[in-house]
Amino acid sequence: MGLKHLEISGFRVFKHSSIDFPTDGITVLVGPNGTGKTSVLEAVGLLGIGRSFRGATRETMIRNGDDTAVIRGQFVHPERDVLIETTFSRSKRSRTQINRQVTTSRSDLSEAAPISTFCPGDLDVIQRSPAGRRDMLDDALALLEPRLGAILDEYQRALRQRNALLKQLGGRLRADAESTLDIWDQRLASAGDKIVSARRDLLERLTPEINESYRALSGEASETVIETDYEASTSGALLEALMETRADDLRRSSTSVGPHRDDILFLLNGGDARTQASQGEQRTLALSLRLAIHLAAGKTLGLMPTLLLDDVFSELDPDRSRRLLSELPAGQALLSTASPLPPDIKPSLVIDVADLLA
To answer: What gap in Å lies between CA 357 and CA 350, rounded to an integer?
Structure first.
């Protein structure tokens, strides 16, 4: 399993570039900062995750002077090859196709192109806002259980529609709009309760793997015990909570409870890692979480996802870099770096990104 061919046009700094990859081992993208190394990984990530792992909007990823960006990737599967194409424009709606069939499903992408990522922003995910922790967990849900990707998409659609209706009502619930709000509450609650249950189950499943990865990455027989907890914005069923907060939501024109407001708590030896762990401990914990997700995906899917490593070694000391590499399982990895490679790395292919711009 892996990406064997990538074409990008009108994307970031690339007018048109084509790359062939080995589907096993590590491919290293080298070059100075600003030459497009991360953009190549971002394009691959868009094919499997459906969004930029850098948090960019689609319009901002279109090359200056162009109206349209096209990304096309051919993935090798045990039974067949899969072609994924995504096109987005400044003036038209985006379109994504799998083997020439249009899809809007996150679950379809996760099945066609399983991808996991390590990027510098991940290293600060423990101390940043809850949104980063939620996104990391939801990406893992969609990767490990693609059907949950559809539920995540449904929740986001219902949330957008509910918030739009709340803004339209301007703080007053008219009789003719109450039934419509009831419908969005029911849809939001149906998807939301499933997401909360799945997140809790996944955290419980990942916690032993996180502990093992932490011990491996810390480089010692660490006595650190990591525990996880799910901090929900409501203690009961979401539909009941939505009814209880409806008056406040009308006044604020936004939805105040639900999975989009929840958080994930990490405890190191009983202390909240957000406030009581050192920066080194937080970064090791963040790496352990990503590594645990990647390893769990391999066990669940029966094959390792394509791993995108975006310049993480520039943020890690040599010992952590070496340990991370030693813990990675066999499979395809695409690695970008502007720094010297760790001495233990033996790449299958090295690509100078400057050559792609020629």
So the answer is: 16
Query: Cβ neighbours of residue 207 under 8 Å, at least 6 residues apart?
Result: 226, 227, 228
Would you call 53 helix, strand, or coil by DSSP?
A: coil
- Domains of the chain by residue range: 1-114+305-358, 125-302
pLDDT band of residue 122 (cuts 50, 70, 90) is: confident
Would the pLDDT of 257 be above 90?
A: yes
Give the model's pLDDT for residue 220.
67
* Cα gap 324→25, rounded to integer Å: 15
Which residues in 12-48 belong to E strands, given as ranges? 14-20, 25-30
The model's pTM is 0.88
- Bridge partners (DSSP) of residue 189 are none
At 353, give phi and psi (nearest 5°).
Answer: -65, -25
Looking from the CA of 185 toward its CB, the CA atoms found within 13 Å total: 21
Q: What is the mean pLDDT of residues 162-172?
A: 95
Tokens for 339, please give them.
């720094």
User: Mind listing the pLDDT tens digit for each residue in 196-248?
Assistant: 999 999 999 999 999 999 998 887 666 889 999 999 999 999 999 999 999 99
Distance CA 61, CA 58 (A): 5
Architecture category of domain 125-302 in CATH = Up-down Bundle (1.20)
Largest interatomic CA distance in the chain: 69
Q: Mention the CATH class of domain 1-114+305-358.
A: alpha beta
Rounded distance, CA 262 to CA 17, Å? 41
DSSP string for 77-122: -SS-EEEEEEEEESSS--EEEETTEEE--HHHHHHHS-EEEE-GGG
Identify the residue whose tokens are 């094919």.
47
Is 229 in a helix, a strand, or coil? strand
**Cα-Cα end-to-end distance for the chain:** 30
Q: Which residue has the tokens 């559809």?
A: 150
